[in-house]
Amino acid sequence: MRSRRIGRRALALACVGLVPLACAAPRSVTDDGATMDAPLPDRSSPLRIAYGDDPVQFGDLYLPDAAGAADVLPVVVLIHGGFWRNRYALDLMVPLADDLVGRGYAAWNIEYRRVGDDGGGWPGTLTDVAAAIDRLATIAPEHGLDLTRVAIVGHSAG
Predict the structure, then answer these.
(1) What is the DSSP letter of 105?
(2) Residue 137, pLDDT above cutoff 90
(3) Which of 12-26, 56-70, 124-138 shows the lowest per-residue confidence on average (mean pLDDT)?
(4) Is the peptide bond before 123 cis (omega within 30 degrees of 0)?
């Protein structure tokens, strides 16, 4: 049992370690060799995509408008917090999603069943989060997502 806890802790630390790398702003080089932040592309409205049958089993996929058909985008999964209570929702992560998309990343802002929702709490909340992340595999080809470059960002209970 102890090795399981160490494994989970190592996974959590690995995810936290990936965030700064995956979320670093793209840089460009000027003619004189200086680096500068790349211009922020226009943002689009998110696409709402279900990953289950319950009305709260969905994610909002944010994609940069400037992404072309040949672009393959790194993905940041956003898991909102709020004590797993149903009065808190994925809108907590919208400013972060907007910022990430403005920097050229895809953002998968997920909703899940929470305490107070049918099936929310243990283990439904956690299985929803896992199912939402798994859904990326089926939507990646259509939306140009690079599943070799995925970071997970959680807030509070997320």
Answers:
(1) -
(2) yes
(3) 12-26
(4) yes
